[in-house]
Amino acid sequence: MQAFSRLGAFAISVLFVGAANAAVVDTTPTGFQIEQTVHIAAPPDAVYAALIVPAKWWNSEHTFSGSAGNLRLEAKGGGCFCESWPDGSVQHATVVDAEPGKILRLRGPLGPFQGHGVDSALTFSLKAVGDGTDLMLDNSVGGYMKGGFGKWPALADVMLAEQMYRLKQFIETGTPKSPAP
Description:
Elements: H1 2-17, E1 21-28, E2 31-40, H2 44-51, E3 71-73, E4 80-85, E5 88-99, E6 103-107, E7 117-129, E8 132-144, H3 152-173
Antiparallel strand pairs: 1-2, 2-8, 3-4, 4-5, 5-6, 6-7, 7-8
Helix pairs in contact: 1-3, 2-3
């Protein structure tokens, strides 16, 4: 419960700093969809170049090894969004569409969803707007989860909003900071 409270505080801080327009847009007994948008002051090619190097901006707290430095993403069809460390490894997702400066789509359940009969399509779309790029995230999650999805859509939304904020901070400032709770 403490983790949920911490995540709730984080969600509120993200909303107040205006980092991302985040929302769980649909929930059913068998899945949910999250949409988020963040404006980044950089051209689409620069945003894409940073997006495909999660080791530089992903929060280490949301890894299996405890270090984002162990993440790698092969930005090509069939490529792996994987994490490797001396005592183990995990495949988080498979790249199914990689178009530099335009789109990155991954298939596979992230984090705690891996232990369930769940699949996910995570799409990042990039669009040049004004002085930078609108980065749009669409995460569709579905399948079987014992006990149902319950609080998981809100928790996934908060986790993804944090990653979007960290990516924005990394691109704009060089440091992937999380907002203070």
